[in-house]
Amino acid sequence: MRSLRVRLFLAFLGTSLLVLLVMGGVAVGMARRAAERATLRELRNQVLALPAQAQGIMGVRRMAIVRHLLAVSGARIFLAEPGGDLRELGGNEVFVLPAEVASALDQGEVVTGRAEGAGGERLLFAAAPIGGGAGVIVVARPASEANPGFLALAGVMLPAFLLAALASAVAAALLSGATERPLAALAATCSRLASGNLSARAPETGPDEIKGVARALNFMAGELERAREREREFLMSVSHELRTPLTAVRGYAEALAEGAAGPEEAARVVLGEAGRLERLVGDLLDLARMGAREFSVTMTEVDLAQVAREAADAAGEAARRARVELVLEAEEPLPARTDPIRVRQALANLLENALRVTPEGGQVRMRARREGSLASLEVEDDGPGLEPEDLVRAFDRFYLWRKYRGERRVGTGLGLAIVKGLASLLGGRVEAGKAEQRKGARFRILLPLGA
Prior knowledge:
- The chain is an alpha+beta fold.
- It contains eleven helices and 13 strands.
- It has helices at residues 4-49, 51-60, 63-73, 99-106, 148-194, 208-258, 263-291, 304-321, 340-357, 399-404, 415-425, and strands at 76-80, 86-88, 94-95, 111-116, 122-130, 135-142, 300-303, 325-329, 335-338, 363-371, 374-380, 429-434, 441-448.
- Strand 5 and strand 6 (135-142) form a beta hairpin.
- The longest helix has 51 residues, at 208-258.
- The protein is rod-shaped, with a radius of gyration of 50 Å.
């Protein structure tokens, strides 16, 4: 009974048999009532033909005529003179009419119905008044004799019921199998996915609801497969990025030990590579905390225009060293409830990227402005810009780093991914595009305004 297929089979079969029993009961009841109505019509016809003869019987009392009437009618006949009891012809049984029947007979009506005989037997009867006020005549027949048609119908219905039950069992088996097989396929697919086979897919068959579950499962499997591929690429990129500074540190350490490099040169290279490693490890930790939802965010009432000014001031020294002009456009206040530290962190990453790719004498433009119910924090550069296909993937980990590392200066490859994660944590989003008036790229963060 633990098998879903067995339970479905029993449920379908039980439902079918219940429907058959109800239909059979209804049919039997209708057949019985039809047989009784036919018997009552026959009794009515008989009782209508007897009163004229009954007058002669009551006057003459000829037993030969009584026997003739009994043989012709095939029923029991009860007679009563005015005010007397209804007594059976040829017997002593008394027939008691219901009060409402007696009242109808007094008004000259012919009445049919059901009554109980003296011995408790259930009878069908037809009663009529004898003309001239000579009494009442009743023709009765046991109800059990009125149902030969019903018994015949039951004999015919039993084989039909058994055949229908067999057909119901076959249909229940087919339906339970059709329902259970797609579910079994889903379970098998889940087992393969759990064992590490992320290429497994469930067949989208069966009822619409099961198809919907299969489609959702296949979509989830596809997302898991793509996530694993991205993770593999991420680990390969990180390992390469870590190996490069470590190789440089090791090489200069060996050169210093062998006297092939001067202390100042070795110290400068080791210091630079250590800073690079520190930045990469910090970015990796930030991304890990975002993925684990452990990144701390403190929401408070701030002016995003003021936050943008502070970020521009902090990047001013780096812009002067790079001989790049940093321009800020932030005129109106942009009140919002957000985390100013995380906004500063995101803007710092965007400004660092822009200063890295902008040539000497170029310009980096930063804008803080209102766009409907959102605040737009934009950073534009005068660098080489992005290709159209780069715009949708610019915030993916290592995407721009892998594509342009041999052509232009690049960072760790994680800065834009961190910006996207921060914006998402703050309830906003990020966009990449081309600069409005120059060749370079534009990155912007959109955050909700208001308290």
